[in-house]
Specification:
heterodimer; A: alpha+beta; Alpha-Beta Plaits; 14 helices; 10 strands; 30% helix; B: mainly alpha; Formate dehydrogenase/DMSO reductase fold; 68% helix
Chain lengths: 364, 474
């Protein structure tokens, strides 16, 4: 897809590094320039970006939970989840495949049923902070705007909840508070003001005081943990002032960690300043594997992914025809138990396909 | 030269007998001016008929669904409607576009047909304009109340505020605010200006019959109209200016409503065909609704002499023309989806026709493309009952068109991980159903208290108003 669509940043822009692109042509060739206090465009000291490595991600969901705890994301309960109203700012996308499905475009029969032992490709998706964010152009009240460090921010007080931004987000990462999830009880959401009101004392103690608790009717989404970013900048400024070098405002790489990054057990998530070529995130983005999800839309996301790799050489020890499925992982990691697991699998041939089925059955 | 050649050759015809094609008469049976005044004022002056009370009570009851539904929504949250993550606009926006579309025929009839000197518009324009205004009222309910915090809806207007925050003038929703409010204002003005001479007639008639209260009420709104030459000349100038102002609005409103979709990047929305296609669809649905309302009115009040078969013919033909344009647009969307070679676009359209919401697509096609084709036949156009039934299908089809556009595109966009389904809740359905009650209440009040046809304009198109009437050589 990406190769077919000409980029709108011109030949010069194509050759630039992400950092140069962010600062020199912040809006591509758009006639609209970002309102700013300075030169115009993204002229902060930092330009924040993120890289997520799909090779190491194990879909443990720790990032989802950490984000929920850090950002005071309300729990919506089973009923609301079934209605598609989860509030998580980061989610793990799963794509199931087997060899047949992949072969379909090349003339093979393809696969019309749920694969017996599917390979799962996972991808954590949160707001990718597009430089040319489609959500920003459509908000009628300017409630979602860019700051000068490239973060796509939400002005909760300004938001009236038209939800146009969420419709226009190609990643569908924006979350809307359909009821007053923070103030009302999950079992009496539909009673409205007739139900009990207010947050229980214990729940109040769970909340992070650094982060606003959003009311109903307001759109919310990943902020790159803007409270951590601001704290990091302030602490660094104080430290530099104490050290007698107040001019050095650039925060050293690795000082600021987003909540999802901090808990990731495999360090798949890297966050930092893309203006600094030595930062971990810049180095990750410089790798050839780096790609932008839906990049062909010319929206220039700040979060990019390191594509999943496998070794296609059958003579190599880590050879894999496909990204490994659960059974293959098991065989590889526990060669000793291979003989035991094989007959067990035959006894319940549908065992593996039952896993997703059980999940959905439990929810409905 | 030519003359000479003609004279030389033998005449082809011995005698030339041009066929006499009578112009369609707009007021039949040679009705007098008095008859027209008595007929139209009689509807208001007469005793309130029993059917009116029955309809009014039913309409009030149905309208209460909307009132209750909206109250519950504000108290509880937008979650009582069937929105969910990928489908952030559901039924309410479908209903909004549906009602705004219906509100199109009124101004088209009054403004564009006025400028084009289509005299047949006179007997239907008043009611169609009223329909427009009431449809805009129903339409406005949905975008206002579907927002999360309706008490901050004033953020949409450029009111000076302490934080000096402006609206986002790049957002099509912001354009909508101006487009729809301008359209509503101009429609009301246009309607009101047209009403002034007729209100003065009612003022005088009620004064004569001794009803001082109603006389002064109509007199207040007639603004001292005395029917002097000067009044008429100012009136006609004002009417023409407003017709000129309203004409671009007919095209702009639905164009801007279509921008809500066309300016976004969702497959199936992101197309340049939307503005003309939406305007044609709006006129189509507007005329559908005019037929739905005017045909029963004509039968109940015996207005066959004023709304003639010629009028119905004209409306059917416009419905046929716009319905066919809409059908062409459907075909062109498919063609472009294939021709653009964009896989997302291609998938969206195949998914529309054969995906989980295939039934809504085929309802749309059969109601909007196949139904109007019946209007090719004169026998169909002459059968009032059948025309009325077909007009209902047009209304249904146009609701489904908006449903198809909004629902199929949002449920299946870029990332399959975020696909979803849209199912309305009971509150959704009843709130929408209730707006038909709101509309009916307003329309019933209109036919009871205001002249449903412009009397002065009707008199101008009667055969006896024509100085050359009966003269075949004009």
């Amino acid at each position: 897809m990406e190769a077919e669509t000409p980029s709108n940043i011109g030949e010069v822009g194509e050759k630039m590094s992400p950092a140069e692109r962010a600062t020199q042509i912040p809006r591509g060739n758009s006639l609209y320039s970002t309102p700013s206090t300075g030169k115009g465009g993204f002229d902060g000291h930092h330009q924040w970006g993120m890289s997520i490595d799909l090779n190491t991600c194990i879909a443990c969901n720790a990032c989802v939970v950490a984000c929920q705890a850090e950002n005071n994301i309300p729990i919506v309960g089973k009923d609301q989840s079934l209605r598609g109203r989860q509030m998580h700012w980061i989610r793990i996308d799963r794509y199931y495949s087997d060899g047949n499905a992949d072969a379909a475009p090349f003339g093979a029969e393809g696969n019309r049923e749920i694969p017996e032992d599917p390979q799962t490709s996972v991808q954590p998706v949160a707001c990718v902070h597009c430089e040319l964010a489609p959500c920003e152009t459509v908000c009628p009240v300017n409630a979602t705007v860019h700051d000068d460090e490239g973060i796509n921010t939400m002005a909760y007080n300004r938001c009236i909840g038209t939800r146009y931004c969420a419709n226009n987000c190609p990643y569908k990462v924006r979350r809307f508070n359909y009821f007053d999830y923070n103030q009302r009880q999950l079992d009496s959401l539909y009673l409205g003001p007739m139900g009990p009101h207010g947050m229980p004392e214990l729940v109040k103690m769970v909340k992070n005081p650094e982060v606003t608790i959003r009311m109903r009717g307001v759109m919310e989404k990943c902020t790159y943990c803007v409270q951590r970013v601001e704290n990091g900048k302030i602490r660094h400024k104080v430290k530099m002032a104490q050290a007698g070098t107040p001019g050095e405002v650039e925060v050293p790489d690795g000082t600021i960690k987003t909540a999802c990054q901090q808990v990731c057990p495999v360090e798949a998530i890297v966050f930092g300043n893309i203006l600094d070529p030595k930062s971990a995130v810049s180095q990750a983005k410089a790798r050839e594997q780096d790609y932008a999800l839906l990049g062909y839309l010319n929206i220039r996301p700040r979060t990019t992914y390191l594509g999943r790799l496998r070794n296609p050489n059958p003579k190599m020890p880590d050879y894999a025809a496909q990204p490994l499925s659960r059974v293959e992982q098991h065989r590889k990691n526990h060669p000793a138990s291979m003989d035991e697991s094989e007959p067990a699998k035959k006894k319940t041939p549908e065992g593996h396909t039952m896993v997703p089925a059980k999940n959905s059955g439990g929810l409905s | 030269m030519a003359h000479a050649e003609h004279a030389a050759s033998a005449p082809i015809l011995q005698e030339v007998k041009p066929a006499v094609l009578p112009r369609a008469v707009l007021v039949e049976n040679n009705r007098s001016f008095t008859w027209i005044t008595d007929k139209i004022c009689g509807i208001i002056e007469g005793k309130t008929p029993a059917w009116w009370w029955v309809c009014f009570c039913v309409a009030c009851f149905v309208a209460s669904f909307t009132v209750v539904g909206i109250t519950y929504l504000i108290a509880t949250g937008v979650g009582v409607w069937g929105h969910r993550n990928p489908v952030n606009w559901g039924w309410p926006i479908v209903n909004f576009v549906f009602w705004i579309g219906i509100g199109h025929a009124g101004t088209l009839i009054s403004a564009i047909l006025c400028l084009l000197r289509q005299k047949w518009r006179t007997s239907i324009n008043r009611a169609a304009e009223a329909m427009t205004i009431f449809a805009v009222v129903c339409a406005a309910i949905f975008p206002v109340f579907h927002i999360g915090r309706v008490w901050y809806a004033w953020f949409l207007f450029p009111i000076p505020n302490y934080n000096e925050i402006w609206q986002n003038f790049r957002s099509p929703l912001e354009w909508d605010v101006f487009a729809v409010s301008t359209y509503g204002t101009v429609s009301v003005l246009f309607w009101y200006i047209g009403l002034i001479p007729d209100l003065a007639i009612l003022r005088d008639r009620f004064y004569m019959s001794g009803n001082k209260l109603r006389s002064s009420l109509y007199g207040f709104f007639a603004m001292g109209w005395r029917g002097s030459n000067r009044h008429w000349s100012n009136y006609e100038m004002a009417y023409m200016i407003l017709a000129g102002v309203a004409t671009p609005l007919v095209l702009s409103v639905h164009t801007i409503v279509s921008f809500d979709f066309a300016v976004s990047l969702i497959p199936g929305w992101h197309t340049t065909i939307f503005p003309p296609y939406f305007v044609a669809g709006a006129i189509f649905s507007g005329f559908g609704m005019v037929l739905t309302l005017m045909l029963p009115l004509r039968a109940i009040y015996h207005l066959e002499d004023l709304i003639t078969q010629y009028h119905i013919d004209c409306m059917c033909k416009i419905t046929l023309a716009t319905g066919t344009i809409v059908g062409y647009a459907y075909a062109m969307e498919f063609f472009i989806a294939w021709y653009s070679a964009n896989p997302y676009e291609g998938f969206t359209f195949i998914n529309r026709a054969f995906g989980p919401y295939w039934w809504s697509y085929w309802i749309m096609i059969s109601c909007n493309v196949i139904t109007p084709q019946f209007f090719w036949f004169k026998s169909v156009r002459n059968n009032t009952t059948f025309v009325w039934v077909l007009s209902l299908f047009v209304n249904v089809g146009m609701w489904f068109e908006r449903f198809v556009i909004i629902c199929t595109s949002l449920t299946r966009d870029f990332l399959p991980s975020s696909w979803g389904v849209l199912s309305p809740t009971v509150v959704d359905i009843f709130t929408f159903f209730g707006t038909f009650g709101v509309f009916s209440v307003l329309f019933l009040l209109f036919i009871r208290f205001l002249p449903i046809m412009p009397m002065a304009e009707l008199k101008a198109v009667t055969p006896q108003a024509d100085a050359f009437a009966g003269d075949d050589h004009h």
